[in-house]
Amino acid sequence: MCKVGIPFSVYAQQKIKIACIGNSITYGLGLANREKNSYPAQLQNMLGSSYDVMNFGHSGATVLKNTVNPYWKTKAYADALKSEPNIVLIKLGTNDSKGPNRDKYNEFESTYKELINSFRQLPTKPRIILIAPVATFNADTNSISDRVLVNRIIPMIQQVAFDEKLELINLHPLFVDKAELFPDKIHPSVAGVSLIASRLYETIVFKGNAGFDIYTKINAEKNISSFYGFECASFKFNGRDCKVVKPKVAAKGHPWVWRARFWGHEPQADVSLLERGFHVVYCDVAELFGNAEAITLWNKFYALMRKGGLNKKVALEGMSRGGVYVYNWALANPKKVACIYADAPVLDLKSWPGGKGKGPGSKPDWEIFKKDYQLNDEEANRFNQNPLDNAVKIAKLGFPMLHVVGDADDVVPIAENTTPFEKIVRENGGDIKVIHKPNVNHHPHSLPNPTPITDFILKATGQQMNIAGKDEK
Questions:
Q1: CB proximity list for 280: less than 8 A, separation 6 or greater
Q2: Contact 94, 157 (CB under 8 A)
Q3: Rounded to an integer, what distance in angstroms lies between the CA atom of residue 58 and that of residue 29?
Q4: In whole angstroms, what is the distance from residue 244 CA to residue 135 CA?
Q5: Average model confidence (pLDDT) for the chain?
Q6: Total Cβ atoms within 10 A of residue 414
Q7: Contact 125, 85 (CB under 8 A)
Q8: Fewer Cβ within 10 Å of end Cβ, the chain: N or C?
Q9: CA distances from 305 to 77, 94, 210, 291, 301 (A)
């Protein structure tokens, strides 16, 4: 079992020792006064005198053994093992992406697990946290490669985290839009490593409920698989496909995100919230377009999640047509909603799939919609129970809303959906924020760096923390 939020009293007068395992980014290569400015040094300042943060970074180091600079052969590794750490942060993999190392990837996972085990066997039985690499902007395809990091290295690290049941922080999305923080395209600046330190600090001081396991409350036959390093249970409920992904350690209050549609598509916000102790769930009600049957099915699924111990209020996530699903359910269950994150959402079914405005619509989906709502052509053309039609009611329900939209969306035009909805909500005192993506069509959804989405949901669910580690009021 990992020790989460280790209280100082556990170690009496001893400091909590943190061993930072890594490469040149951990070491602080290229930073002026690295002893003060490296991310281990900045993490030390954030944590204070109750902790002893030790830098065991070695420039050029790899996880793989049969390379020019394996971490295994470094003095830093030997010193780390001797340091008797209580927490071990492993941030390796960047140098493994180099061209000469790519034919050895069949050894990567087993070697990484061996590295983990060498720390697990220490008398201190440390809490071990895996850290996936930051983004890089190097143009040399035979050297450190962001493409290889994304497609090969990070998925392997996620698989190791899944197999070993270890906490995981994926730093990569936090930097994909921050090329200016990488002066040499590979190593982050002082401001960049400060961002790393802040994210690690947030994880180290996190206090959750390590004993909570919702799977024990779900009696259905479950298939367990990896969802980006986290355990995902797939099962049937009332004949519908359902999924529950659990965090390594549940946050206090057991917050959760309910994905309405398109499971696993652009998952970066979901993954970032899993890292912070949220559960992420799904109940397939496609293709019912948020009708009464869909709401009834979701009501039953909500009851199952509550029986499993999740929070009374849920963060609803509606992507594309999922916008109709989440808003219709929220209208029927307003006191159960913490917030809504809607991404390029359909808010008027006459716009899509109806195609009654500027968009092309979808004739097959329009026929399904009419069947779901038992409408003839004339009734469908007059349909007025869309989220847009109910915008005044929604505005008065009190929960905050975030929309992320592409300004060039010609499938679900924002002029027929989010723009008029936002106007009505604001005029009626509702709480809504819209993030616009210039020159972006319906796809891609979400944001490459999900931080604005994550922060919105953290705040709306009362989980946001400030740098002092106290719950933000």
A1: 227, 244, 245, 256, 257, 259, 270, 273, 274
A2: no
A3: 9
A4: 29
A5: 94
A6: 22
A7: no
A8: C
A9: 44, 39, 18, 21, 6
Residues lower than pLDDT 70 in the chain: 1-13, 465-473
The token pair that represents 19 in the structure block: 């061993």
Tell me how many degrees the CA angle 107-228-102 measures, rounded to the nearest 5: 30
Please choose, from the candidates 261, 274, 374, 269, the residue with its C-alpha nearest in 3D space to the C-alpha of residue 327.
Answer: 261
> In the beta sheet, which residues pair with residue 40?
none
The whole-angstrom separation of Cα 261 and Cα 239 is 17
- Contacts of the segment 375-384: beta carbons below 8 A, 24+ positions apart: 380/350, 380/354, 381/350, 381/354, 381/356, 383/349, 383/350
Which position has the token pair 């005192």? 429
pLDDT of residue 5: 52
Answer for the pair 168, 90: CB distance below 8 angstroms, yes or no: no
Looking at residue 266, the DSSP 8-state letter turns out to be: S
The answer to whether the CB of 61 falls within 8 A of the CB of 102 is no
Using an 8 Å Cβ cutoff, are 316 and 333 in contact? no
Question: CA 170 to CA 297: how far, in whole Å?
Answer: 34
pLDDT of amino acid 468: 40
Smallest CA-to-CA distance from 465 within 208, 88, 247 is with 208
What 3 state SS string does 311-325 have?
CCCEEEEEECCHHHH
**What own/partner pairs with CB < 8 Å and gap ≥ 24 does 349-353 have?**
349/289, 349/324, 349/383, 349/386, 350/380, 350/381, 350/383, 350/386, 351/412, 351/413, 351/416, 351/417, 352/321, 352/411, 352/412, 352/417, 353/321
* Cβ(395)–Cβ(334) below 8 Å: no
Residue 473 in tokens: 């009021």
The reported pLDDT for the residue numbered 154 is: 98
Task: Please tell me the predicted confidence (pLDDT) of residue 471.
Answer: 41
Which pLDDT tens digit goes with each residue over 402-418?
999 999 999 999 999 99
* Token duo for residue 16: 């909590």
* Closest of 387, 370, 368 to residue 379, by C-alpha: 370
Locate 190 and state its tokens. Answer: 């002082």
